[in-house]
Design a protein that fits this description.
disordered C terminus, 9% strand, Rossmann fold, 48% helix, 6-stranded mixed beta sheet, disordered N terminus, two-stranded antiparallel sheet, single chain, alpha/beta, DNA polymerase, domain 1
Length: 334
């Protein structure tokens, strides 16, 4: 393992490609943009523009794109109602989702579609790879589950309206300021709160504010569940009520213990943890010390020119040539 100073660590950029495609489909569908073969390309073009913006901003040494397995789902097999509340995808978006991997592969960038898994799992495995190899990592996604990956090594760019430069780059400090929860407790917080976008109800009676207070005063949840099991929740009640007295808020201890001891509460929490936990053991295929390995920058000028030009936008081709075919700033400064 490298002993480089943190300021000199190399940088891995992990991109949730479906997240970018979904956002760009809805933002750019009105353009009706097509590639040179006449196929819809507005989502692909928007994704590529944001990727270029991110590379220009962060100057990564390597970049990895996570894709969803659209043919199988381990989580759906376990829970058929997983993501059931989402609207059916526009066929024109589906077509571009299916072509995204081949576009990125053609450029020479690294893509990964883990069997039965999702881009979220690539995010988690990328962050774990960076920590093992003493790299820094930036994850680009609109999915809040990635907040659990934030660490000394990893930051998360939460993609919102406004693009790359208009989106917040979340660190341990900023995450805590937003939610009142430390990054290492975020998964537990999410499991208590639930996630409507994935059709995962939370523990009834425990909302965002209550979950944050519980974890801030008593986390980790392993200790909370132990106190409930062996002591009837007496310590939980005492600590929460003392906190309420100190802060001048309503006492919530008894109510929280009642919610956590309700039928099915522990099972719901444990199930959410399993569903929300990203896999960290996926083999990424990154070999950063071997020149020419997919995902390493810079990329060959001719290859970038040929592939990007097929999208039919000369300005994007010029931008891609400049950004993808020159040495990353992090390497140039090393």
């Amino acid at each position: 393992m490298s002993t480089r100073d943190p300021a000199d660590r190399r940088l891995l950029l992990v991109v949730d490609a479906p997240s970018l495609l979904h956002r760009n489909h809805h933002a750019r569908a009105h353009t009706g943009m097509t590639d040179r073969a006449g196929r819809p390309s507005w989502a692909l073009h928007g994704m590529l523009r944001q990727i270029l913006e991110a590379i220009d901003t962060f100057a990564p040494d390597a970049i990895l794109f996570g894709l969803d397995d659209r043919t199988a789902s381990v989580r759906r097999d376990s829970y058929p109602a997983y993501k059931a509340g989402r609207a059916e995808k526009d066929p024109l978006l589906v077509e571009q989702l299916d072509r995204a991997g081949s576009l990125l592969d053609a450029l020479g960038l690294a893509t990964l579609t883990p069997p039965g898994l999702e881009a979220d799992d690539v995010n988690a495995s990328g962050a774990a790879w960076a920590e093992r190899n003493n790299w820094n990592c930036v994850v680009i996604t609109s999915d809040r589950d990635a907040f659990a990956l934030i660490s000394e090594h990893t930051k998360v760019l939460r993609l919102i309206n406004g693009g790359i430069n208009g989106s917040p780059l979340l660190t341990r400090r900023s995450l805590h300021a937003m939610y009142g929860v430390h990054a290492e407790r975020y998964l537990e917080y999410a499991a208590l709160r639930g996630d409507a976008s994935d059709n995962l109800p939370g523990v009834s009676g425990v909302g965002e504010k209550t979950a944050a207070a519980l974890l801030a005063q008593l986390g980790p949840m392993e200790g909370v569940w132990s106190d409930i099991e062996h002591n009837g929740g007496a310590a939980v009640i005492a600590v929460l009520d003392e906190w309420a007295t100190e802060t001048g808020t309503r006492k919530i201890g008894t109510r929280v213990v009642r919610a956590l001891t309700a039928e099915g509460a522990r099972e719901r929490y444990d199930f959410n943890v399993r569903m929300m936990t990203g896999r960290t053991d996926i083999e990424l295929g990154l070999t950063p010390d071997i020149p020419g390995t997919p995902g390493l920058l810079p990329l060959p000028w001719d290859r970038v020119s040929r592939v990007v030009d097929f999208l039919g936008d000369h300005a994007t081709t010029s931008l891609a040539q400049r950004i993808l075919s020159t040495d990353p700033a992090s390497a140039a400064q090393g």
